[in-house]
Structure formats: C-alpha cells, structure tokens
UniProtKB/TrEMBL annotation:
Full protein name: TIR domain-containing protein
Organism: Arabis alpina (Alpine rock-cress)
Residues covered by the TIR domain: 1-85
Highest taxon of the lineage: Eukaryota
Coiled coil: none
Any one Gene Ontology molecular-function term assigned to this protein's record: ADP binding
One Pfam family it belongs to: NB-ARC
Family matches, as InterPro entries: Apaf_helical, Disease_R_plants, NB-ARC, P-loop_NTPase, TIR_dom, Toll_tir_struct_dom_sf
One of the GO BP terms on file: signal transduction
PANTHER family in alphabetical order: ADP-RIBOSYL CYCLASE_CYCLIC ADP-RIBOSE HYDROLASE-RELATED, LEUCINE-RICH REPEAT-CONTAINING PROTEIN
Gene3D superfamilies assigned to the protein according to its UniProt record, in alphabetical order: Helical domain of apoptotic protease-activating factors (1.10.8.430), P-loop containing nucleotide triphosphate hydrolases (3.40.50.300), Toll/interleukin-1 receptor homology (TIR) domain (3.40.50.10140)
Amino acid sequence: MKCKKEFDQMVFAIFYEVDPSDVKTLTGEFGAIFNKTCAGKKEEDIARWRQAFGEVATIAGYDSRNWDDEAVMIEVIVDEISKRLISSSPSIYLKGLIGMGAHVDEMKSLLCLDSDEVRFIGILGPPGIGKTTIARVTHEQISGGFELNVFMDMESSNIRAPCSDDYKVKLHLERQFLSQLTNQEVLEIPRLGVVHNFLMGKKVLVVLDGVDHLVQLLAMPKARFLGPGTRIIITTQNQKLLNAIDIKHIYNVSYPPDAEALQIFCMNAFGQNTPYDGFESLAWEVTRRAGKLPLGLRVMGSHFRGMSKEEWIAELPRNEVQQAQEIVGRNSTSWKSQGVDFGSFLLPEGDP
C-alpha cells in the first residue's frame, strides 16, 4: 500500500479462502493469525499493518469463495492483470515532453483521486496549447486504478447538430462511446440509455477530447449511474460548454515560460532540450518569433531540424507571410481546422 501511495502503483486484491470483512476488521481466523504475528512487535508497526489491511479490504478484488473452479478464476485474474499492465504502460511518445510533469501534477490535484465522489474535470485552452497531450498523459498514468477506461476523440465524431436535443446524434455518440469503451464494434443500439446499464455502479475513467458541441456532453453517461470514484475529463476551447453542465473543476492551460518554450523548440530542432553550440542566439530568435504555442514551436522546430547554421541565418531575414504559409503547409494540413494562425511568423518586430 505504501508503493501505491508513493509511486502510484497498482494493487490487485485477491482474497483466497478468507472473508474480506475479516481482513478489514481483523477478526475471525485471519484476525487470530494477525494477533499471533503481532506478538512482540512494535506498536507503530502494528498500527501501520492494521491500516494497510483496512485499505486492502476496500479494494475491489477477487474472493476465491465465489468461484467454483479456481483454474477459471486464475485465468480471469491473469487476463485482467495483463489488460491493466498494457493500459498503464507509458507510450514512447510521452518521453521528452517538456513541462508535462507540472501539468499532470495539477491535473491529479484537481482529480482528487482519493475521493469517492463522481467528479468532472475540464481542461480549457486555445488550439495547440497541449490540452490533448495533457489529457492523454494523465489518462495513461491513472487508468490502471479504474474498472473501465476510455479515451474518446470527439473531433472524429463529425457532429454538426442543429440543437442539443438531437436524438439521432445522441444515439450515434452513445454507440461510438460503447464501441471505444469495449474495444468492439457496436453496430446498433436499440435506444438511448444502454450505456447506463453497462456502466451501472462501475468506477470508470472517461476522457472526452476536443468537445465542441453541447450534445456531445449530453449524450454521455449521467453521473448518477456511475460508480464511486469515477472521473470524467473534458478538453475543450469553449468555456461555455463547461459552464453549461456546471463543471467546477477546470484546468486553464497557460502558455509555457520563455525557457520552457525554448526547450520545446530545441527538442524538435535538435533532438535535445538545449541548442547546439553556436546556435544559441538563433534558437532564441526563432522561438521568440514563433511564439509560445507548443504546437507551433514543435512545427517550427521540425522545419529547422537538420539545417546548417548558414541555412538558419539565410532563413531568418525572410519576412514574407508566404514563407510562413509554406512552412506550415509542409508540416501540417490541419492548422486552419484548428484555428492556428502562423501568418505573422518570421515578421520582424514592429511589422503589422
């Protein structure tokens, strides 16, 4: 339990031929063995053991007395542990994300994971600020503590609902939600509300990424059907959407400080968080002109990667907006759809 608290490790409870209530209260045969073990031990050690057993007994686990066939139980347990290990393994792409530790710490504070309440958390900020990355890293770090978890890309739902009460749209979103939650293709659901029966009383982690329509939120599971400890994270650019469903816990993602912005740029331009020797002033200049938007810093870093110092110097004096458009166009086709404007990149200070 110490490792769970200090290192956020998973604890998987298996009660083999013992009543979980006896573990919690230290009674029955289990309590007798505990008392025998405690003989001659220090009081502080005994108190720590009592607390640990009390915490273990509250974790949803497997009670061998409920299984007729132990082999089947073991197979189910192994499968469940495998799934949790896979879901909790960090992605390679997460390495080297500048400043992400502080973002995740802030999210964990808002999530209040020790509470049994059903809590909604919003991540708010402009396009390219890093909302999706923060949500994904947070999801990967904490998902092992939930019975079910899903990361749902709402932008891919292609919703253009005329109003928030569009039944067909909600039906489509609920089917899509169930498909991603179960990792199976759900071809059809007969009516709205099927997801409530599926999730009834379960502790779940849900991330709704890129919400831009109220109907996307109204189609999701209602809090009263979800189990204690459930967390729902919503990323959006629109404060009004969060206000519409009365979300109180909101993380407003801010722009990185100057030094952090330089590191983000350098990771993409040089493959390290500092400039190469002789490139210091050039890196600072490009970072300054590119602005502090993390997505833009990554794109511009990728553009300059592999260039010689002479090529950097030749690139900087060019002031045409066309150059910025060419750079952005070569690196991404999604800037306009995300509302990101690099039209002023590489314009000298004072120019309109």
